[in-house]
Design goal:
Length: about 425
């Protein structure tokens, strides 16, 4: 596939673009219930829900594929007994009723497993009398989207809107009155497959779905304190963590920062251990040259990482760095070292220009998050991304300033960070084929 023509970096990027389109075209959707089709629709729906200030839930649907050609949908099944048959495909493929029933039975068994895994005993969000926004990562045949729309209508939705990043030009006509309104970021002529619009269309894992839904992998987290050079570090470790994230704070914030604590809490709900600590002592923080010295800060971050990884609760876990402001430069500077080895880096409102000389040496996957109203920093991050040699993405939070104090802005940052770390930490759960 020629990825140079891809329109979206990945599903999270597509979700941000879809959210911007929705806010511009249908601002009345603020506060609607967002219902995602797992797996692939969930990382798209999460930033949409954050931007709209909406509740996020799932509608579990399984594609019923043609025997021997499972990627070709001849129908779909969903929760509450929903069933869609694409008779045109069935007839063209010569599928007998018995063969269809056999595939349907297998898909219903997997559907029940996934519904139980994603809901964790929680009931679906009530939909009666409400506007419901159904979101997937794209529409091809439309069987899965049709099943989802039928399910939410059966649950009492007063209005159903189907929204996707990409669909065929005639998709609304195909689906008819399944939804009350349709919205896609793009409907390219010559549409062949949803994945052609994505640079990264890898299969979404159950862990990523749980992270997006903000469901804890296990209740509670164990706390520890670890002495470091600039003061104690606070370790919070959920049961069976996927990895550990160390926070590198910039000027004006520290381990007690409410912003950093809010992001750390979100990461723990995604099954990630977190470490909050200070890179500088209070006396050092009063010296401007130290605050803006990425070499010094990066060295402190690397040293703290080595100490944290020796802790019995974190031994052997993959790790990543979340850097804010000048702490972002510290994380990038440290990631340029050949012995660093973080699985992923997230930089929030960062000053990557402070580490510019070292950026071409960074091969770690890096996510740069900036506020849309912080024009100067947006440009600095764009230039920095061009210097990076590994996988990278730039996410702009619309309307947010440097400190992300606007309503919903910090939640968007936390969601983006959780998805990035879960994506790049080695997976512990299997994955299946994406559904349409």
């Amino acid at each position: 596939m020629d990825f140079t023509a891809a329109h979206f970096t990945d599903r999270t990027d597509a979700g941000r673009r879809l959210a911007e389109t929705l806010l511009a075209a249908a601002p009345e959707l603020r506060g609607a219930v967002v219902v995602a089709l797992p797996r692939g629709g969930v990382p798209v729906a999460a930033p949409v829900a954050a931007a709209l200030g909406a509740e996020l839930d799932v509608c579990v649907v399984r594609k019923v594929g043609v025997p021997g050609q499972s990627e070709v949908a001849m129908g779909a099944v969903g929760e509450d007994g929903a069933r869609v048959v694409n008779q045109q495909v069935v007839d063209a493929a010569g599928v007998t009723p018995e063969a269809f029933a056999a595939v349907e039975a297998r898909e219903r068994a997997e559907l029940a497993r996934r519904a139980a895994a994603y809901r964790r005993g929680r009931p679906p969000v009530p939909l009666a009398g409400r506007t419901v926004l159904v979101v997937d990562d794209g529409v091809a045949t439309g069987s899965s989207a049709l099943a989802a729309c039928r399910i939410v209508r059966a649950r009492g939705a007063a209005r159903v809107v189907l929204a996707v990043p990409v669909a065929p030009p005639d998709w609304a006509g195909r689906l008819g009155d399944a939804a009350d309104a349709y919205l896609a970021v793009r409907t390219p002529e010559g549409f062949r497959a949803v994945g052609e619009s994505y640079r990264d269309f890898r299969q979404t894992t159950d862990a990523e779905v749980l992270a997006a839904l903000e469901l804890p992998r296990e209740p509670g987290a164990t706390g520890y304190e670890l002495p470091l050079a600039a003061g104690p570090a606070e370790l919070a470790v959920p049961a069976d963590p996927l990895g550990v994230v160390l926070f590198a704070h910039g000027s004006g914030s520290g381990r007690g920062s409410p912003r950093n604590r809010a992001v750390a809490e979100r990461l723990r709900r995604a099954g990630l251990a977190t470490v909050l600590f200070d890179l500088l002592t209070p006396g050092e923080a009063a010296e401007p040259w130290k605050v803006f010295d990425p070499g010094l800060l990066g060295g402190r971050l690397a040293g703290a990482t080595a100490a944290v990884r020796r802790h019995h609760a974190l031994a052997g876990l993959p790790y990543g760095w979340f850097g804010a402001s000048t702490g972002a430069a510290a994380a990038l500077r440290a990631a340029a070292e050949p012995v660093a080895g973080p699985a992923a880096v997230v930089a929030r409102g960062g000053r990557p220009d402070l580490a510019r000389a070292r950026l071409p040496l960074v091969t770690t996957p890096v996510l740069l998050i900036v506020g849309g109203a912080d024009a100067e920093v947006v440009e600095l991050n764009r230039r920095a991304r061009a210097e990076l040699r590994g996988e990278s993405a730039l996410q702009v939070v619309p309307g947010a300033g440097h400190l992300f104090e606007e309503p919903g802005a910090l939640a968007a940052v936390a969601d983006l960070a959780a998805h990035w770390f879960v994506r790049w930490f080695p997976a512990r759960e299997g994955s299946g084929s994406p559904e349409r």
